[in-house]
C-alpha cells in the first residue's frame, strides 16, 4: 500500500511542477495574441507560448527522468508507448487548467496577477487529471480515483495549497514572480 501511494505522488510531479517551470520559461508572445473578448483580454499577457511549451516539455521530461530512475524497481507509468505520454498529459493538463482559470478570471474582470484563491490553487489539478484521463483512463482511475489510489488524491488535495503557497512565496522572493500567490 505504501508503494502504491508513494508512486502515485511521485508520478504526479509533472503536474505539480509545470506551472512553476512555466514561470521560468515564460515571457514573449501571449497565447491570445493580444485579442480581447468584451472589455478584457482573452487570457492576458501572463499566458505565453514559451511558458506553455517550456512548462509542458520540461515538467513532462522530469516525469520521464523519474520513470527511468525508478525503472529497475517500479513502473512509475504504464510500461508502453502511451504510458510515456502520461507525464506530458499531466504537465500539459496543468498548463491547460491554468489557462482555463485565466480565461475565467478575465471574464470575471480580474486583472492579470490578481489573486483568485480557489482557481489559482486547484485549476491545474482539474486540468491535469482531465487530460491525463483522456490519455490513459485506466491508469489514472486506478492510481488516483479508486481503491487505495484515493489516498493519492486525498494527499494531493491537501498538499496542493501548501506547496502552492511555499513555491509562490519563494518565486516572489527570488524575483521570478510578481506576486506572492
Ligand atoms: N507564464 C507564462 N505562460 C503560461 C503560464 C505562466 O509565461 N502559460 C508565466 C508568466 O510570466 C506569468 C507567470 O508565469 O506572469 C506566473 O504565472 P501565473 O501566476 O499563472 O500568471 P499571472 O501573471 O498571475 O496571470 P493570471 O492572472 O492570468 O493568472
Ligand atoms: Mg497568477
Give a description of the structure:
With 181 residues, the chain is an all-alpha fold. The protein has one domain. It has seven helices and two strands. It has helices spanning 2-11, 13-25, 49-70, 86-107, 117-135, 137-145, 149-173; strands at 36-37, 40-41. The protein has a two-stranded antiparallel sheet with strand order 1-2. Strand 1 and strand 2 (40-41) form a beta hairpin. Helix 1 (2-11) crosses helix 7, helix 2 runs antiparallel to helix 3 (49-70) and helix 4 (86-107) packs antiparallel against helix 5 (117-135). The site of cytidine-5'-triphosphate has 19 residues, from helix 2, helix 3 and helix 4.
Keywords:
181 residues, mainly alpha, 2 strands, 66% helix, binds cytidine-5'-triphosphate, binds magnesium ion
Task: Give the class from helix and strand content and strand pairing.
Answer: mainly alpha
Shape: globular
Mean pLDDT: 95
Q: What is the number of beta strands?
A: 2
SSE topology string: HHEEHHHHH
Quickly count the domains: 1
What is the straight-line distance between the termini?
34 Å
**Strand count, sense and closure of the main sheet?**
2 strands, antiparallel
Helix content: 55-70%
At a glance:
This protein has 181 residues and is an all-alpha fold. It has helices at residues 2-11, 13-25, 49-70, 86-107, 117-135, 137-145, 149-173, and strands at 36-37, 40-41. Helix 3 runs antiparallel to helix 4.
